[in-house]
Write a structure and sequence with these properties.
mainly alpha; 17 helices; 75% helix; elongated; disordered N terminus
Amino acid sequence: MDVGLSLVQSSVSESTSEILLNQARSTTSPGVATVLIALVLVVLVVRLAVVRTGRPQLMLTALLTVMAVVVLLRDPRVQDVLSAAGINLASVRVLGHSVIMFGAVATWFLARAWRSSYVFRRPEVAVALAGAAMLSGWLWWVSRPARELNVAVEDFESWVTAGYLVPVSLPVPVACAAIIVALVMHGVERRSWRTWLWVSAGLVAAGFQLVDHLSRAISGFLLSLGRHSWLTDLRTQGVDQLFLPAVAALALCTIPGIVSELRSVGHRRDARAAATDLELLWREITAAVPGVSKPETGTLPIEERVAEMLIEIEDGLIRLNLSLASTSAEEAARDLIALLAAPALESSTVPSSVRVPDWVADQSKIRLVAREYRAMTSASHVSI
């Protein structure tokens, strides 16, 4: 290691090495980079604010977060700010690779989350995160000579080169292989051309990352032996020109998940409003007819809870021998108050000839009736 260090010291000036610039700094033009970075950050902020459910979507948000951090660390303007703070480019490169280790963890669990039967286990997640942290620590230790000289590990052409480039290149291919398997299984299950369109795009992206990282590991091993080839020359010149556009494309691909989540938010908001409308009427009917209420109703997701409430209201009214000819929500609410106030309401058998009013089967109408019922009940309590 001392020999390699002395060779680098004698051949590299105090300025940043050319290989390090090729490896750690984005070559995308500032104008294009600004637009793409803004796109990535806007999509990421929206996802962080909106996407709250679904493990695949949460893992996708985690992966996009990692990629956004790496994109920023590769931007020359961010690097200039960090340099002014005393963090040289070699350290920024190691920081970016450390973040990518955790991105590999997110990618691995994204592939696992596509399986509906998969259950996240805390020990498994903890082991994966601990592994990423230990690997990150190794990268910082083995890269110390390069960080002290502000050069690339490739400049040493010693065990330092392989000791850094081989470990840093292995987690992503493993995660990408899991993604490829999950994508193929997803496409086979769905069997639609639209699904296969997205699957094909994902396969190309995952395949590119797999080849990119494996070629870096091979190049690092060859350089550590002092052997040069077209692969080592290609890798030292930098092959990451498409990294920022690829991350921007990933951000765009996550937009359908945002739209779906926004729709779900709207549905949950409507369901909460419906539950508020139905709550009093449902509670009094199920109190009068205990047999129609299921104990687990209160623990269901809000949409399912509303569906259960509607079913139990209808079943309860049937068991109460309801046969009302109400023509308005106000009349129906008044009839319900009178019906629920009567003693010995529940029938021992479910009648077969009861004609349930049309509004019972219409959610919008029964919500109107329930609101009127609540208003009248509240008014009667106030007047008392």
